[in-house]
Amino acid sequence: PSSNLHTPDASIFDLPHGPITSCKYNNCHSEGGSTMNSQTKFKKGDIFFRQGDDSDRVLRIHSGELEVIRENGNVSVVLGHVREGEWLGEMGVIEERPRSATARATSDGSVEVLTAQAFLDQVSHDPALARDLILRLSIRLRKVEDRIVASAALDGETGSTASPSITLIPQTDKLRAQIGSAHIKVSSLPFVIGRVPAADEAPPPRQPDLLVKDWEPFRLSRDHFMIASRDGRLIISDLGSTLGTVVNGVPIGWDFMRDSAPLHRGENRIVAGGQGSPFEFLISVN
């Protein structure tokens, strides 16, 4: 339940706001006499920020692990985990929007803390990071239907005749009760999986190829994720869903470093809607 995030032992981690003197990494620098970056240790259970907070810091994990949690109705849903070498909170700073989820440590570790300005300064000196952020922003600014149409156009341009065989297999009893236990052949791309709209919701502009029922609090979004082809590779792309998608253990979506992840040959496990979601699929690529 959501009360788990508000117990006395779930202490708020004290992010540095003033001059920082413990900076150790090569990227640390000063401007106006104030250190901009810091490596700081944390303890299991520390909360870095809560859903709804201002986005005024960016984190880069150096060791340990954080879990990303979204309040969904009266339930706290773990969307995924952020580990060594990964950024957290960068898109909130870029887009100047409140935190869309809570970040809590699941182990002891250390994190580099950057002010918003320090992160933007780093982006201006790192072409690869800047290119990645620009790409993600351009994708997010598109409406969902435009993303799907663009993916279809790209797939058509590849002209690949050696298309792999793609099979979708439900992995939970709840999912099998809805769509049956038979394997679903994916005959064309993009292939979109989404939720049947509630009575008071408008239908999505493009009806998903696979519609699944869900009940409040919804784990599945109306347009949740799609199987698509990009640069000759099969990918899963999260379509801006509320609770994100996990591809072979890697979380993607609004709260994470990436919005898509590759599918490999053989079996791939996809979970839509956070940890413990009944919407778990096995996608077989042969």
How would you describe what is shown here?
Helix content is 18%, strand content 34%. By secondary structure, it is of the alpha+beta class. The longest helix is centred in the middle third of the chain and has 15 residues.
Topology:
Layout: E1 30-31, E2 34-35, E3 37-42, E4 47-49, E5 57-63, E6 66-72, E7 75-82, E8 87-88, H1 90-95, E9 102-105, E10 109-115, H2 116-124, H3 127-141, H4 144-158, E11 166-170, H5 173-179, E12 184-186, E13 191-195, E14 210-212, E15 225-230, E16 233-238, E17 245-247, E18 250-252, E19 260-262, E20 266-272, E21 280-285
Q: Strand arrangement, largest sheet? A: 12-11-21-20-17-18
Proportion of beta-strand residues: 25-35%
The first-to-last residue Cα distance is: 40 Å
Mean pLDDT: 83
Low-confidence stretches: 6-11, 15-35, 157-162
Q: Give me the number of helical elements.
A: 5
Helix content: 10-25%
Could you give a short account of the major beta sheet?
Answer: 6 strands, antiparallel
Task: Name the helix and strand elements from N-terminus to C-terminus, one letter apiece.
Answer: EEEEEEEEHEEHHHEHEEEEEEEEEE
Structural class: alpha+beta
Instruction: Give the total of beta strands.
Output: 21
| Gross geometry | globular
Cα gyration radius (Å): 20 Å
